[in-house]
Amino acid sequence: MRSPVRAAVPAPRRSFVGAARQRPCTLVVCRGCCCGNARKHPGTDHVWQLERLRAAAEEHGFEVRTTDCLGPCDQANVIVVQPSAAGRRAGGRAVWVGFATDDDCTQEVIDWAAAGGPGVAAPPVTLELQVIRRPGARK
């Protein structure tokens, strides 16, 4: 069985224009109806998680964005790790991490993004266990 992180991908782009040429690894953090919801995950400090991700982004040079809802609510909290421009040129593609509700997972996402993210650095092995299929992806 192929790992969803190392799945076959189309040939990487060779040129980028404007800001995309220098785009860093970006974390897209779901904060919709289920992700970031204390009623659904009462043991998770959702505010701390987002603050920790943002502080690490400032320290290590990656970006953090939030979005309303990414879709796989049954696998909340969801964080999408998008490759940097260099990672995309190396063939990296966005990786969806589900069940990101504990401190260890948050730290692993931070460590991976700080190391360059998809296409630049391999994800921690334990984080690979939390990779989920993006909605609408073919099996």
Strand order of the largest sheet: 2-1-3-4-5
Overall pLDDT: 85
What's the count of strands? Answer: 5
General shape: globular
Roughly how many Å is the radius of gyration? 15 Å
Biggest sheet details: 5 strands, mixed
Q: Which class do the helix and strand fractions yield?
A: alpha+beta
**What's the total helix number?**
4
- Percent of residues in helices: 25-40%
Q: Write the H/E string, N to C.
A: EHEEHEHHE
Strand content: 5-15%
Low-confidence stretches: none
Q: What separation lies between the terminal Cα atoms?
A: 12 Å
Summarize the structure.
This protein is of the alpha+beta class and 139 residues long. Helices cover 27% and strands 14% of the residues.
Describe this protein's structure:
- It is built from four helices and five strands.
- With about 140 residues, it is an alpha+beta fold.
- Strand 1, helix 1 and strand 2 form a beta-alpha-beta unit.
- The longest helix is centred in the middle third of the chain and has 15 residues.
Please outline the helices and strands.
Layout: E1 26-30, H1 46-60, E2 63-67, E3 79-82, H2 85-89, E4 95-97, H3 103-115, H4 125-128, E5 131-132
Parallel strand pairs: 1-2
Antiparallel strand pairs: 1-3, 3-4, 4-5
Helix pairs in contact: 1-3
